[in-house]
Amino acid sequence: MERWIDETLHPHWRVSLRAERVLHEVRTDHQHLVIxxxxxFGRMMMLDGVVQLSxxxxxxxxxxxxxxxxxxxxxxxxxxxxxxxxxxxLREVLKHPSVEKAVLCEIDRQVIDTSLVxxxxxxxxxxxxxxxxxxxxxxxxxxGETNQRFDCIIVDSTEPxxxxxxxxxxxxxxxxxxxxxxxxxxxxxxxxxxxxxxxxASSGKLLRDIFNDAACFLCGQPTYFGGPFALTWASDKGDxxxxxxxxxxxxxxxxxxxxxxxxxxxxxxxxDLPGYVSHIWQGGRGTVGA
Length: 290
What we know:
Layout: E1 3-7, E2 15-19, E3 21-27, E4 32-38, E5 42-47, E6 50-54, H1 58-72, E7 78-83, H2 88-93, E8 101-106, H3 109-118, H4 120-123, E9 132-136, H5 139-145, E10 150-156, H6 170-179, E11 180-189, H7 197-210, E12 213-219, E13 229-235, H8 245-255, H9 264-269, H10 275-281
Parallel strand pairs: 7-8, 7-10, 8-9, 10-11
Antiparallel strand pairs: 1-2, 3-4, 4-5, 5-6, 11-13, 12-13
Helix pairs in contact: 5-6
């Protein structure tokens, strides 16, 4: 029998994806996880009814999460990835030759194990890299207690539902600031401003209250249905976003980092927000002037 799997994130509409073959489906200790093949998007992972990635377009999100902060940093050495159990962000982080240690803190071991079996091309050996350290732990507790300090923290979480809800609150953001080295930067995902404006508005307020420099940047992800996808930037070093295209290209070439979506032009332009997104980021509602 033909099966269709619904993305149930949105309260008033759903996207249904044809599952040619379901490879794995389980309710873990933390969430419902399913991996299946779709004729258009390839192999897909969903957690609690929300698309996390597909093999067709995962490079977009993972490259923007990793290379925007790391190419803005002069010499990132220690990086923390919170969530990201599929290994895609970790894969991109490890492309930077200056990185000496990359800690991945994932609350759900089954996400890692299942990804290694059914989506090995996403991590592409990143979990076996000697610079990688895998920790199965709660992200909020980790940043609040760790003695380690990081040049960059990348929060590759699900939407603010279920176990990821706490990764969008004041306690967690303050923990991230605590765990950053001087001059470091924290990056997070913040969903689709057009349909979930309240998430971005809330994060914007908290990050501006906690960090000296907070900003939003965008990418376009075909499988994140509902408009451009928002990512957040937070740092106490105000000039990390002042890089020119020329300087970013020189840095990317020197590090010999090959990308499919990220370019220096995209890096700079991603912070130029459409009016309605800028309005939301500053605390407004879903449309300009609302």
